[in-house]
Amino acid sequence: MGAEEVDIKVEYCGICHSDLSMINNEWGMTRYPLVPGHEIIGTVEAVGPQAKGVNVGDRVGLGWMAGSCMHCDQCMKGSHNLCSSLQQTIVGRHGGFADFVRCHWSWAIQIPEGLDGAKAGPLLCGGITVFRPIDMNNVKPTARAGVIGIGGLGHMAVQFLNKWGCEVTAFSSNPDKTEEIKKLGAHHVVNSRDSKAMKRLAGTLDLIINTANVSMDWDSYIAALAPGGTLHTVGAVLEPIPVAAFSLMSGEKKIAGSPLGSPALNRIMLDFCRRHNILPVVQEFPLQDVNAAVKHLEDGKARYRVVLKM
To answer: 228 by DSSP, 3-state: which?
Structure first.
């Protein structure tokens, strides 16, 4: 153990599509043997002599990031998630499908009292992924916001935006999920394959968060943005997003993206969840059924996050 590291005894660990991408080396950065798992909730078992703010017995969580240099300009500005020396929990390291996991003390995020540990893990990956666009785009509670893809990420984005005070439009290609999506907090559900419905939205949305990782009719979403609006993608779309320059210029519209958030923003996000009782919808599997859990996710059956109980 390094002087600034902590060991966490794992109690719960989520499985998401990032784990599948690493298992299958879809991003070309997997090192085998791989121990997946980066949505971890557990108890601090040991702390290094220079670890700060973390004590043995604390209930903490660990997401995609396990360490940052703490001295570069990005870290000093509070943007640890943009550190050029960022250590990622399952990239060249062993993740949470294990009894213990190790990280730098700054990324061991304290879990607020009363927050369900079985559901808190996905907040440290999917939750912070969709919370960051709200924070960095200075979204007002009077804003009209859209969410593309109501799955593992999108169902949390809908809850966040609703409790933020926004009027929320969810884009889904599955009409059978309409009532379920409205219960999560969407005021409107639009079939993304209905061209007439998409045209009726033209110029109305201040922010659209894309959580899907597939190509789509980007022009229709740009058209749906109000002047000054932003299409913010957190879905790992592997193909370029082609947009005509004039469609951005004419309305001062923007395309943006972001990678999760800093330790401080994780704490703010968790407190927001505690205040407003925002939690992901999860399906729990015991660790011995990990292969069935992975298959369940691969088959697209997750509603909406899969969590292993150790």
So the answer is: strand
Whether the model clears a pTM of 0.85, i.e. scores above it, the answer is yes
Q: Are 93 and 66 in contact (CB under 8 A)?
A: yes
Helix (H) or strand (E) holding 250: none
For 139, phi then psi, to 5°, come to: -65, 130
Question: Between the CA of residue 29 and those of 26, 43, 44, 93, 191, what are the distances in Å?
Answer: 8, 29, 29, 12, 36
Collapsing DSSP states into helix, strand and coil, what is residue 49?
coil
3-class DSSP assignment, residue 3: coil
In CATH, the number for domain 5-124+261-309 is 3.90.180.10
Rounded Cα distance, 279 and 42, in Å = 17
What span, in angstroms and rounded, lies between the C-alpha atoms of 135 and 264? Answer: 12
CB 27 within 8 A of CB 63: no
Residue with tokens 């809850």: 159
Domain ranges of the chain: 5-124+261-309, 127-257
Here the tokens at position 308 are: 């292993």
pLDDT digits (tens, 9 = 90+) for 68-127: 999 999 999 999 999 999 999 999 999 999 999 999 999 999 999 989 999 999 999 999
Q: How far apart are CA 181 and CA 189, in angstroms?
A: 7
Spatial contact of 145 and 169, defined as CB atoms under 8 Å apart: yes
Domain 127-257 has CATH 3.40.50.720: yes
**Helix runs in the chain, H state only:** 17-23, 73-76, 117-120, 126-136, 154-164, 178-184, 195-200, 218-224, 245-249, 263-276, 290-298
Q: In whole angstroms, give the CA distance from residue 115 to residue 109.
A: 13
CA-CA distance, 184 to 212, in Å (whole number)?
18
